[in-house]
Amino acid sequence: MDRALWPEGVERCSFGKFLLWLGFIGIFLAAGAYEAVMILLPDGLARTALDNYFGFGLWITFDLGVIALGAGAFFTGLLKYILDIKELEKIVNLTVIVGFICYSGAMLVLALDVGQPLRSWFGFWHPNVHSMLTEVMFCISCYLLVLTLEFIPNILENRQLNKIPLLHNIAHNFHYVMPLIAGLGAFLSTFHQGSLGGMYGVLFARPYILRDGFFIWPWTFFLFVLSAVASGPCFSVLVVKLMELITGKELVDFKVKKLMCRIGGTMLALYLFFKFADTWAWATDVLPRSGNTWDQMFNDALGYGEWLLWAELVVCGVIPAILLLTPRFRNNPGLLYTAAILNCTGIVINRYVFTVQALAIPVMPFDQWYSYTPNWAEWGPSIMIIAYGFLILSLSYRYLPVFPQETQLNPISAPAAPAPVEAEEVADVEGEPETA
Amino acid sequence: MAGFKEFNIRWSMVVDIDKCTGCGACMTACNKENNIAPQEEAKARLESKGFPTRFKKIEWLTIYELSNGKQGGDHDTAFLPRPCMQCGMPSCVSVCPAIATDKNEEGGIVSQIYPRCFGCRYCMASCPYHARVFNWDQPIFPEGMEKQLTPNVSVRSRGVVEKCNFCHHRLMYAKDAARVAGEDPEKLADGAYMPACAEACPTGAISFGDVKNPEHEVHELAKSPYAFRLLERLGTDPQVYYISKREWVRKQGDNYLESEGAAAHGGNGGGQHG
Amino acid sequence: MNRRTFLTFSAGATAGLMITPIPWKLTDDASIWTQNWQWNPKVPKRAIYFAEMASKLDPSGSGVKVAVVNGNAVGVAGNVDHPLGKGAVSTMAAAEVGLLHSPARVRQPMLKTATGFKAISWDEAETILTGKLSEARGEVAMVSGDDTGSANEIFAALVNGLDGSFYMMPGETQSAHKALEMMGGEGRIAYDIENADYVLFLGADALESSGTSTRNARVFSETHPTGKAASAKYVYAGPVMNNTAVVCDQWIQAKPGAAATVALGLSRILMDNGAVANAKGFASFKQNVAQGYAPAHVERETGVRADVLKKIARELAAAKRPLVIAGSEFGQGAGARALMASLGLNVLLGQMGQSVKIIPGAPAVVQGAGSESERYAADVIPFLKGVAEGRDGAKVLMVYDANPAYGLPQTQAMAKAMDKAAYTVSFSSFMDETAERANLIMPNSMTAERYDDLYTPHGAGTATYSVNKPLVKSAFDTRTTADVMLSVASRLGMDLGYASFKDVLQAKATRLGASWSSLRQGKAWTSASASSAQLNLAPCAAPAVRAIGEGTLALAPVVKHNIGTSKVAMPPHSAGSIRDTELSGVQTVVQMNAKTARMSGVKAGETVKLMGPGGEMTAQVYVSEKVMTGVVAAPLGFGHTAWDGFSKGVGENAFKLLAAADDPETGLSVWSTNRVTIATA
Predict the structure, then answer these.
(1) In the prediction, which pLDDT does C230 show?
(2) For the structural domain made of B11-252, what CATH number should be given?
(3) Among B146-160, B210-224, C535-549, which is the least confidently predicted range?
(4) Where are the domains positioned within chain C?
(5) Between chains, do A52 and B260 touch, taking CB under 8 Å as contact?
(6) Which of B39, B93, C460, C587 has its CA 20 to 30 A from that of C552?
(7) Helix, strand, coil in percent for chain A, rounding step 5
(8) Is the pLDDT of residue B88 over 90?
(9) C426 near C435, Cβ under 8 Å?
């Protein structure tokens, strides 16, 4: 029925099945949207489990997580367009879409998270140049614009749109300026990834996250950039793998995935070097300077134990770095994907502890530890964003030439994947957000 | 991070912990003075909707209970009222993306501009004293109680952060009174400007004045060997001083490593500012 | 229109729009709207006026200034000129404004019908009351909780005129009247805490809930200048490190209700060291004290170590102006013994007429009201018990400024008395437990809305007198009870000699020799006159009252005014100051130390059941070393079944645990030595 809109030379499932799939995504979108509307209109943030101790919680963790994972977009773009690594063009479209989803999703969550969304432009109108958050706001907004510009040519390449000469030419010309846009994106993205880290590092009255630094930038500034570029490429590969599982087709060459993961692994190793150094400096300088001990920073009983740190640094740091950098392990798809998952998990743990554990620790000696558990009002919109990501990816996959290798890897004469399997995979994958 | 101005006037509170009974009169006075709605209605509303209520109340002044941790006859207790510290180097001001909080007025009170705040709560995350609270819900006054709002302080809307401002409107009144009396509004007499909590306190545990003005009592008090400030070593430079003759109380004002021993605390809290 | 012109038009329109003020104005408006939502209450734009007033809700009678905007009370400020307020604003004084629009206020006269209360007019209400009173002649009773007002004279005169019985609520004032009466004195006990250099509080929570606590707190503050050496030593002896003990220079752990025994123990040491008093009954006092109250005995009875007792005795003897203030830890139930024993001690210390004075009581100006001590003579507890059990009849029972259905021991029996009396009339400003049980509610105006006066609360330093006049618009259709009763009296054909309560106050001012115009402006009158009458020490050495109940732990009720008093429930603006060591969710928290918890087999955070001689309650355990071993501390003020959302159903009422015992010698019931058993619930 909508065959005319499909990219040339590819096979897609029936329109009915696709609608069913969209409906399935729609359930999650609707459930989350309901929570979002209830928060925006009648109930406000009173609906959430956030409180005066935990002003930041799941949403900030979620935002920082997806923005780090979405870093595949700027980093791949940088490597492809500026450093001219040709191989990456096979995946660069997808990284852009993933980036777009992550950033627009983060913006949506942020709009919920502020108490007065109608005033959220005050950060631009009355900017405080000293605030890392101002930098974040400017960079994220601008970068989302850049991502949109990067996404547009791909949209215009839709088979029907591309028939219109104007759009065709626009798309074509966009490709010429893409290195400029990619460069701009890399610049903006580096700065806001950094300023997100800086947001924590500058909190000089919170010894858990306070970091000294270089010039005006605390070390977390650089650590966040590095950790983002370490996890972004791996996350893009995981998204491709997920799409391959759902569609039952090979979309990107394993060679390209290996390359992406090797890049991610390299950056991870670099990041870990600095992260260990930073942790050491924190433990031996920042903490004693503020009169705190290592043990005071952790609380096993409330779930903020030291194990989280070791999980982040070793299980989700050193181990995936080794797996990704050793050709023998990297060539094994199972180990590659495991390593990619661990890598991404480690970065999410990092963002979580910086957001939540930092606030759980009592700084005044007579204060107490408190724990924070997000409620459905916070999970709902977060899941909505994940569903929104699935929606954008599904539409993009069906109607846009995202994967240049698809026709080559899946000749049209090849038998389509059996339908029941597909449906099953769909169910499995969609089930994920709820249990996440 | 940005440095902050030095002011000629430094409005400061000196709280004598040894005189605080924990009676709560300061909190009651603060609530009334600053048009803070009684929290029961709001809590009941949240409960009726099944929302979490922990730490959602609006409270500018919190009284902490300190214990020396000993048992039996050696045990001792102290109450520590905690307003906003009006830090000389506020961790909250530099982080606000919209300059909704600032420290740029003579006297050094850290302002909070409710109509400017869009509720990102970064300032709350930055403050180790928990001095800032967020309006999670609309303010709800029991019927008729809205007639008892004072003209001094606007009622805050949902979704903005608020905090103690040393009853800044009282400073304005005191300056006006000085102008009317033909005096210099920048040289207020000791006691001409008092926040509601300091005025109410039955045991007079809260002293208030310009710590830089030798004619004000707090000038000497802040230099007392028993004076200290909360988390001083983090560099926040609070304008609220505490006094206690009990060493264990002073020691709980900041974090100390075991190796630092007694030398690290009970020092002269206000030496460099007096 | 082709595509090109459409695109050109769109681009042009967008650019054109951006240079008009429209988008910028809309954006600007959005920022304004978000500050001015119509559901946000607006603050008034009017000037503030301050008017002076003496708080009747605050048992310490502190004077304050009420901030008035457009006829509405908006705040309370301190009044440095008032001798009992001294510039402070206690939580109860703040409640004078905070409670004006309390959801619990009774808005007009109410008559109970089969289906609940119905609103009636004041005329109807007075007609009904007049009818009931004329029918009930001889079986009329009235209970008043106003320890400082002249309204009592009107009530007593009316009730006496109907051959009825008049009772005052038990408390420190009644204890003081009884103690003085037994020692052959009359008037009021005054403590010159201002000039004392050594103050020993025996049980009396004198900086929070006992006596003129606001003034005491200010004096404490003056004698303990911040950052400097204290000019007086303050010592507290009691079972709990309460608000008073926490700031005192020393806390001595003493069992609940130990004040009398400790005072006599100190007297014994002083007399053993040669202290004598040129006072009536000294020989008998000395002999009786010498027979008991050896330090070792006192230690056994009260938990106060003998060496500590000796040290305190030495310090008292060495002080220039020592002062001993005794009372119940929670302001009631100590009977007269603690006061008598402490007066004996003060006399031994040579402080009678110095730190401790006897000052004249309020002169009566209403014919037939009797003297103050006559009004305090009768004990309301046995009377109410009798009504509850159907022994005493009360055809009409009137309650003024008191909540006996909530704030007395054996609470259930007291509440039952309200039900059992044939006709109950409440004059409460609030829908409290007593009002809820009344047949007729004739709501009194609040302090800021009415004429009233305040004469020398218990423990003041000198005689003081303040007059209040209406400062704000009446929030509701309420009236001053004293005026209502004058009107009822005239309907009954009785002439009490005054047309209005204001005239009574004016007469009182004249009798005291105070300036009416100055009083009317809120200025307090004070008098330094004191009686030089000799007190008889003989009854001071009476043996202490035994423990009530068989429980394993001594119960120490704790009063904090931010939780409320026995009359007034938690004021809305104080609700935030309730600590989680007092209330956890809606569960009352009781405190005991680690050793007691171990002995009782309970753990921190556990829900337990307390069983006292008066009844039971459930509570959560908080382990705190602020309570002495063998004692469980329970906050009073929770567990209201009436009132408003701030207090109804919040926690449990610890008054329920208490039972009162007879003390035939003094004629006053006592309930400061209750014991409870604790079990995990």
Answers:
(1) 96
(2) 3.30.70.20
(3) C535-549
(4) 48-100, 110-172+369-526, 188-359, 553-680
(5) no
(6) C587
(7) 75, 0, 25
(8) yes
(9) yes
Report residue C168 as tokens.
């005052």
CB distance A407 to A66 below 8 Å = no
Quick one: fold of C553-680?
A: Barwin-like endoglucanases (2.40.40)
**C188-359: CATH architecture:** 3-Layer(aba) Sandwich (3.40)
Place of tokens 């004698």: C223
Burial of C15 (0-12, 13-18, 19+ CB in 10 A): exposed
3-state secondary structure string across B105-152? CCECCCCCCCCCCCCCCHHHHHCCCCCCEECCCCCCCCCCHHHHCCCC
Which chains have at least 3 CB atom pairs separated by less than 8 Å from chain B? A, C
| Lowest pLDDT segment from A175-179, A299-303, B65-69 | A175-179
Give pLDDT tens digits for C291-328: 989 999 999 999 999 999 999 999 999 999 999 999 99
The 10s digit of each residue's pLDDT in C157-201 is 999 999 999 999 999 999 999 999 999 998 999 999 999 999 999
Minimum-distance CB partner of A133 among B95, B133, B134: B95
Q: Given 3.40.50.300, 3.40.50.10190, 3.40.50.740, 2.60.120.330, which CATH number is that of C110-172+369-526?
A: 3.40.50.740
Positive or negative: CA dihedral C105, C107, C110, C113:
negative
Report the alpha-carbon distance of residue C211 to residue C140 in Å, rounded.
31
- C34–A118 CB contact, under 8 Å: yes
Q: List, for residues B214-257, the tens digit of each pLDDT value.
A: 999 999 999 999 999 999 999 999 999 999 999 999 999 999 99
Closest CB to B252 among A46, A123, A365: A365
Topology of the domain comprising C48-100: N-terminal domain of TfIIb (2.20.25)
The Cα–Cα gap between C107 and C475 comes to 8
Residue B266: pLDDT over 50: no
Contact A55 B125 (CB under 8 A): yes
CB contact under 8 A, B23 and C646: no
Q: Which residue has the tokens 């007691």?
A: C596
| Residue C27, min C-alpha distance to chain A (Å) | 9
Strands B62-67 and B11-16 turn out to be unpaired
Query: DSSP string spanning A90-155?
Result: HHHHHHHHHHHHHHHHHHHHHHHHSS-GGGTTHHHHS--TT-HHHHHHHHHHHHHHHHHHHHHHHH
Out of C576, C581, C625, name the one closest to residue B57 (CB): C576
CB distance C84 to C460 below 8 Å:
yes
Matching CATH number, A13-410, of 3.10.20.30, 3.40.50.300, 1.10.10.10, 1.20.1630.10? 1.20.1630.10
